Amino acid sequence: MNLSVRSLRNAAAGLLLVAAMALAAACRGDGDSPSPTSTTAAPTAASAAARLDGELTVFAAASLTAAFKDVGAAFEDANSGVDVTFNFAGSPALRTQVEEGAPADVLALADNKNMQAALDKKLVAQAWRTFARNRLVIAVPSANPGEISAPVDLANGGLKLVLAQEDVPVGNYARESLGNMEADATFGAGFRDRVLANVVSNEPNVKAVVTKVQLGEADAGIVYATDITGDLKGTVTAIPIPDEFNVVATYPVSVVSDAKEPEIAAAFIDFLLSAAGQAILEEHGFTGAE
Amino acid sequence: MSAGAVSRRGRARVVGLGWALGPPALLGVLFLGLPIAALAWRAGRTGALAEHATSAFVLDALRLSAITSTFTLLIAVIVGTPLAYLLARYRFPGKWLIDVLIDLPIVLPPTVAGVALLVTLGRRGIVGEQLDAAGIDIAFTTTAVVLAQTFVAAPFYIRTAKAGFESVDPSHERLAWTLGASPLRAFREVTLPLAWPSLLAGGILCWARALSELGATLIFAGSFQGRTQTMPLAIVGAFESGKSVEVPIALSVILVCAAAAMLVLLRLVTGGVSRDAHV
Predict the structure, then answer these.
(1) How many CA atoms are closer than 13 Å to the CA of B49, on its beta-carbon side?
(2) Looking at chain A, which runs of residues are DSSP E strands?
(3) Chain B contact present for A212, CB below 8 A
(4) What residue in B sits closest to A203 (Cα-Cα)?
(5) Which residues of B touch A (CB under 8 A)?
(6) Distance of alpha carbon A256 from alpha carbon A103, whole angstroms
(7) Given this model, what pLDDT does residue A30 score?
(8) Is the dihedral of CA A233, A239, A242, A243 positive or negative?
(9) Computed over its alpha carbons, how large is the radius of gyration of chain B?
(10) Cα–Cα distance between A167 and B240 in angstroms, integer?
(11) For chain B, which residues make up each domain, given as ranges?
(12) Distance (Å, rounded) from C-alpha B148 to C-alpha B144?
């Protein structure tokens, strides 16, 4: 009896909390009534002349986290009436969220494959624009317990390798890069499979891979060059993957079809491609749009 | 008993206020019920539930979830039962601290549990470093999944079992002792049968919580099909892959069914408890 009364009270409190949180989330979703505004981007000149006012929601690939926070701050500085909020996650998850009606104005992904899928489903308004490129590196803890000095060491027996899961862009790129290595005689046949046999975890996004390496739980991970940010210097070391085996990741961006703020979204994309926007991306290690 | 009187008075008030309580109550039921119904509807609409449910990806996750949650339950019962009995029967300095400690994992975000386990048993953890030197690796293994689940779920068993032991009048045990039963025999033949419904309820709660464990597992054990990717991790993985939202939906429906079955079982068990209390 003691049990049932107490556990009921606990359960009631828990349910109330869950309901309140879910309600808050739902209310935010309800505010996203379909926008009747035209989704085509306003001409650059006009949008530059008109004062932009409103809240812009940008859904961006996890690997863009640090760079986009800076881009967002610079964009807010240039447009005092604009408030930018971000949602960072793996590209496929972002696409699924938009597909299920999440309120986004801008969609910036880490591969063209997911953007093409978004375009096929008419989730984005127009052909995308490539705003950045990225490359892969091998991330190892600075103590380097796996004694890795070159990509060929990834096949060493007993190594603990962490990758992003398949279908997440960086996971696909990593497997593609391993395939490129296998095609080279110095790595030998079956190299890709020997490396994949060392995988101890397929993480849902690239930041989770970096964290596992940073904590020293993994001996190595394959991530973007831009993921080894200043904060990680000293705990994580990047080992380069030579150009002939590397994969160039391209980042497409587009205005979401159901955007509430299509004009601000278009202005944000213009800013991303402007000299100022490109400079910020390059500071974070991305190569330019061209 | 007094609890019965209270609940009867409570019912009387409810009848008088029925007209005012109806709409918010209905809203609450709809709000909680609709998402579950929507899941079932979406899974049913595509009709691919059976196809997804029998894929290797899902079967591996199901098998792993069944195995790990069962081990978690076993550990919780073996370690938790003596602890619960100790807390229910004895007073000692610092007891309140243990009570708080046992409640902590229930209120903490599971990700905190994952990080805590990592800094304890990870390769650079305070214990893990020694284990690593001895050639024992825990992170990224099925063992890590069980440990993460145990940390998060065992408190549900211990809490409920403790309440169960507390509800058994110690004089029953003393009577058994005076009749010549050893303390162990008195526990086995008097206390255990009386506390049994609570132990069972705690076990079901613990098992259900272990089955739904995600945050701690993802951080401490990683995600690898057949090794550490339990059902909740498979749902996250399927969602993140973006291939088709129907796969995570199918997985979710399976998990909802499993959880609902547990809760129905729990009601049957605790229903027995409250009936006893009202007699």
Answers:
(1) 15
(2) 54-61, 82-89, 106-108, 129-134, 136-141, 161-164, 199-203, 220-224, 236-240, 249-255
(3) yes
(4) B223
(5) 1, 3, 28, 31-32, 118, 122-124, 139-140, 160, 163-164, 166-167, 198, 201, 218, 221-225, 228, 236-237, 239-243, 245, 270, 273-274, 276-277
(6) 9
(7) 38
(8) negative
(9) 22
(10) 8
(11) 49-278
(12) 6
Domains of chain A: 35-133+251-283 (3.40.190.10), 136-247 (3.40.190.10)
Q: Would an 8 Å CB–CB cutoff place A21 in contact with chain B?
A: no
Check: CB of residue B154 under 8 Å from CB of residue B80: yes
Per the prediction, chain B carries an average pLDDT of 85
> What is the rounded CA–CA span in Å between residue B176 and residue B180?
7
Collapsing DSSP to helix, strand or coil, B167 comes out as: coil
A27 at interface of B, judged by CB pairs closer than 8 A: no
Give how far Cα A106 sits from Cα of A125, A252, A266, B98, B210, Å: 10, 11, 8, 50, 38
Distances from the Cα of B108 to the Cαs of A12, B100, B145, in angstroms?
A: 18, 12, 18
Closest CA to A26 of B27, B108, B238: B27
> Collapsing DSSP states into helix, strand and coil, what is residue B228?
coil
- CB-CB neighbours of B186 under 10 Å: 20
Confidence of residue A50 (pLDDT cuts 50, 70, 90): low
The CA-atom distances, in angstroms, between B264 and each of A11, A160, B73, B209, B255 are: 15, 42, 18, 15, 14
Place of tokens 């009048």: B169
Q: Are B205 and B164 in contact (CB under 8 A)?
A: no
Q: Which CATH class is domain B49-278?
A: mainly alpha
> Is residue B48 within a helix (H) or strand (E), and if so which, with residue range?
none
Q: Give me the pLDDT at residue B211, please.
A: 92
Name the phi and psi angles at A250, rounded to 5. Answer: -110, 140
Amino acid found at A262: P
| Neighbour-count burial of A230, counting CB atoms closer than 10 A to its CB (0-12 exposed, 13-18 middle, 19+ buried) | exposed
Q: Which has more confidence, B28 or B17? A: B28
Q: Give the ipTM of the model, two decimals please.
A: 0.75
The pair of structure tokens assigned to A217 is 């739980």
* Residue found under tokens 């932009």: A52
Residue B161 one-letter amino acid? A
- What are A79's two structure tokens? 């447009």
**Cross-strand partners of B207:** none
- Cβ A199 vs Cβ A174: under 8 Å: no
